[in-house]
Amino acid sequence: MKIAIACTPASANLIRAVSDSTKYGAPFLLVQPREYAAWSKLYAISPSVDIYALTRGIPCLVADAHGVGASGERGQLERAVATLYQDVLQDLGERKDPLAVLLAFMVMMGSGTIADFERNGMGVHTELLVRLQREYPIVIYDAEQRAFRCLGSDSGVLSLLRRSIVEARRQFAMKTVRMLMRARRVDAAVALLEELCDTAECLQAISQFPVLFALHGHVKFIRSVLAHMDGEQLATMDVSVALAGWMAGLFTGEYKLARAMATELRHRAHEIASCVSYEDWVIAVAVSGLWSDCRAVNLPAIMDSYKETGSVREAEILKRHVSRLDGVLSESASKMAMPYSAPEEGEDDVIVTNILEYLDGVYIGALVDGCEWDTSVDERLTNLVRLLNARDMGAIAARARVVASVHRLMHARPLIDERAFSDASRVAVRESNLDEQLLMLLLEGWQFLMLGQFLNARFRAQQVQKLSDGSRTFLVGWAQILERVAKLRTDARLTVREEAEQCDLSTTARTPAEAWVTAMQLSVARFDADLSAWFSVNRAQLLDPAFRMRIRVALYALGGRAESVQRLIPRDMANSYMLEDGLTKGSSGHTDSVVLRECMEDADMVNVSLFGGFSVSQGGRILTNEVWKRRKAAILTARLALGIPSFVSKTVLTNELWPEMEPRKARQNLYVNLTAVRRAFGQRDQGPQYIVTQADGIALNGEYSDTDIRDFNTLAREILVQRAGVSMRQVVDAALKLEEVYKGPLYVPDCGDTRFFVRMRKMYQAKFIDCMMRGVDAAIEEGDLLSASWLSNAAIRQEPTREDVVRRAMRVMDLEGRRRELVELYQSHLHYVRTELHGQPERETRELYERIIKENEDRVLL
User: Fold this and answer.
1) 3-class secondary-structure state, position 662
2) Contacts of 552 (CB under 8 A, 6+ apart)
3) Which of helix, strand or coil describes residue 147?
4) DSSP reduced 3-state for 590
5) d(CA 656, CA 445)
6) How far is CA 41 from CA 34, 36, 37, 67, 69, in A?
7) Which of 311-320 are b and which e, b meaning 16 or more Cβ less than 10 Å from the residue's Cβ?
8) Is the preceding omega at residue 645 within 30 degrees of 0, hence cis?
9) CA 780-785-788 angle, 5° bins
């Protein structure tokens, strides 16, 4: 007769009563692989389910897997797993078996290695492991790797069991957290802290591992713990907790928090060496290098306080990251070629050092090295951005978004994240990083170029060249290329050829950018002989491999206009210089790239400028006085330009241009001057109609003519009308464009009835000042003092006596620390008001000046 006894802790006493010679051990009762088919059929378990991974062959668990499919409900099985572990732990605990402690820690960790125990000073005897496998085979153990995994650890079924363990032995929670942190399993440690630990215990963990939490992406956890600190905890906060808060502030982009914690660290610099390990401090110093330009976030210089020396892997990775970015802007091949470290292995989703090294590889590959389009890279970057945003790591996510957009831009793919560059520019403003601001401005320009917005692209290229000091050759050179491409896309053919004739082909280009600017000009002008000579002389500069990726996008943007220069590229290199609809030449397949808009029409556009004087150009050529043989024809053109696109009555025109002449003769003069204007524009019956008439009205045809008045009105509307979705950065950019458009007061003729022109001059001048004031306020809000100063200076040049202009200028000067100029401005304004207006400045102006002076005096006293 044979008796079968179930292998569960409930039967333990009966099992012990039977002699070893007459019983099978627990492992012999497991469901064997050859038996799985019969068990699966009996309990309707799907063949696609890995039943061994779920149950390890334990019979009671296999039976509870009844009806489990590939995507079926596993609640019954998970409850059975939890019950099994609970019974085993209870049985071991009642007998005070040392195996209970080992199994409890294994359940707390879910999975790991025996080395994790040894790393924390907890030796695990081989005898215990052998007993665990022989008597309670409920943990999957790999003897070769010395690794273990509890059943149900992936699905989280052990959370209630962990809570009961911690309730019985509180110290198990923090011991497990330390084991997980030393094993660099930060995600699991944070999950345990959030589930089982209070604020004091979380602070204890952060104090012990301040840098590791931040480097593994748990800045949201750090901020949450800091937010739940009470008054006593804040007063006695450890400096290592302040260091963790400092890193969290930088990674999330909350620089107010970073500055507060940096101030705390500087005040308590003498405590750092005793509270923060050498490795953590070296990494923190390297992190500060990523934000070296950011105001008031610098750490105290206390490296001499440490006795240890040597390099730290994470710190070296961060330093190389900073050097690579600097190498791109300075075009230093040695810095860009710095070696990459092998990625840190681990189960955590976010490891900042791994992410930065990966971003560096994609970024330099897209801009310099010439990597080809890879869909998997694009997908990985998209997932990375989503993961970083979910972790609230705004500053790192902004960098990842830029790299993803650069990767798409350099391969002529449509930009999915159209705000990546503008958002990164706003972050760079907050970080006071001028190089980053200019780079984002330049990338925005290329984005606009690929979208067909050539004027916006050219404006950003000019801004980069104006604001760059010239040491960053990458920025200056690529901005020159962008400006030239945008200009060639909009200039008339005649203008292109005239400028090509002025190119000095006897000189040698100093940089690849200069060589390509001239080459593109000659190519679009179709001066093939001159282009061939220029290519031969400057061959080394033109075929510089470090410039290939940047010029490839430019040639793609020019399209067929660049055929002449593309034919001169050596055949074995030609494919690497060509992009066709987002694919390198020779590739095939469907494309989803943005098609560049064609804007060169057969008709030459007429551009009428009225700000700063009267000027008319057509097809890029200025129409001189020889064309305007009749002065009234110029005034008539100016009057029609002011009314575009509306029609102006003939009666109104005759009354304004010839107020003292009888109507019939005035009407004849009007027709004569209209003929002169048509002749000046080259208008023919079969060609484009620049001047159109309708009933009693006359107008400039907006289809073939444009004015700076129209540009002014568009920009002013964008600045002054506070529409939803318009950011402060966009307002500042629009104000800077408007400052370029408004070259001076509106043109007023010197004959006829000029009241309309005078009225419009006053209106546009007032509107210009209002726009500048709005731009100054937006720039101050963005922290962009350079733009605020530029705009306030532009306003005060046009209206130096207007009170609100003076007040804005004083605010900007105060923020920039220009105290002497501030005093001089106020004193000159005070003198003007007293002598010319016999009064005093407005109360708001006086109070602002007095407050600024008092604050400065208080600072001096302090």
Assistant:
1) coil
2) 410, 576, 577, 578, 579
3) strand
4) coil
5) 43
6) 13, 8, 6, 10, 12
7) ebebbbbbbb
8) yes
9) 70
Residue given tokens 């490296």 in the structure block: 303
Distance CA 627, CA 620 (A): 15
Q: Which of 225, 238, 291 is nearest to 264 (CA)?
A: 238
Buried residues in 487-526 as b, exposed as e (16+ CB within 10 A): bbbbbbbebbbebbeebeeeeebebbbbbbbbbbbbbbbe
**Which residues lie closer than 8 Å to 595 by C-beta, 6 or more apart?**
581
Tokens of 788: 């605020």
State the angle between helix axes of 803-816 and 819-836 in degrees (0 to 180), rounded to the nearest 10.
160
- Per residue, what are the HEC states of 481-535? HHHHHHHHHHCCHHHHHHHHHCCCCCCCCCCHHHHHHHHHHHHHHCCHHHHHHHH
In this structure, are residues 738 and 639 in contact, taking their beta carbons and an 8 Å threshold?
no
Helices (H), 169-277: 171-182, 186-196, 199-208, 210-215, 219-227, 231-235, 239-252, 255-267, 269-275
CA triple 567-568-572, angle to 5 deg:
85
Q: How far is CA 116 from CA 214, 346, 770, in A?
A: 21, 14, 67
pLDDT, tens digit, for every residue of 46-81? 555 555 555 555 665 555 555 555 444 555 666 777
Q: Tell me what the mean pLDDT of segment 255-272 comes to.
A: 91
Which tokens go with 537? 């002389």
Tokens at residue 158, please?
Answer: 């052990």
Cβ 795 vs Cβ 769: under 8 Å: yes
Res 16: pLDDT: 64
Eight-state DSSP code of residue 155: T
pTM of the model: 0.66
Closest by CA to 356, choosing from 320, 386, 406, is 320
Give the Cα separation of 339 and 120 in Å (integer).
Answer: 34
Query: CA angle 73-79-81, nearest 5°?
Result: 110
Q: Is-contact 88 139, C-beta < 8 A?
A: no
Name the token pair of 713.
Answer: 């009105």
Q: What is the DSSP letter of 294?
A: S
Q: What is the rounded average pLDDT of the residues 295-319?
A: 88
Alpha-carbon dihedral of residues 21, 23, 25, 31, nearest 10 degrees?
140
Contacts of 298 by beta carbon, 8 Å cutoff, 6+ apart: 262, 288, 292
Cα–Cα distances in angstroms (integers) from residue 128 to residues 25, 101, 110, 366, in the given order: 16, 10, 18, 55
Cβ–Cβ under 8 Å, residues 401 and 385:
yes
Does 676 score more than 90 pLDDT? no
Mean pLDDT for all residues in the chain: 82
Token readout for 697 is 């009205």
C-alpha–C-alpha distance, residues 279 and 261, integer Å: 19
Supply the DSSP symbol for 629: -
Nearest residue to 329 via CA among 120, 430, 482, 477: 477
CA distance 45 to 811: 75
Tell me the pLDDT tens digit for each residue of 129-157.
888 877 777 788 888 888 988 877 555 66
**DSSP code per residue over 301-332:** --GGG----S--HHHHHHHHHHHHHHHHHHT-
Q: How many CB atoms lie within 10 A of CB 538?
A: 21
CB atoms within 10 A of CB 558: 20
Contact 84, 58 (CB under 8 A): yes
Q: Which residues have C-beta within 8 Å of that of residue 119, sequence separation ≥ 6?
A: 179, 182, 183
Instruction: Starting at the earlier edge strand, list the strands of the sheet with 705-707.
Output: 621-622, 615-618, 606-609, 705-707
Q: Note the helical H segments in 4-74.
A: 12-17, 36-42, 51-55, 59-64
Residue 424 tokens, joined: 């990164």
Asked if 201 contacts 221 with a C-beta cutoff of 8 angstroms, the reply is: no
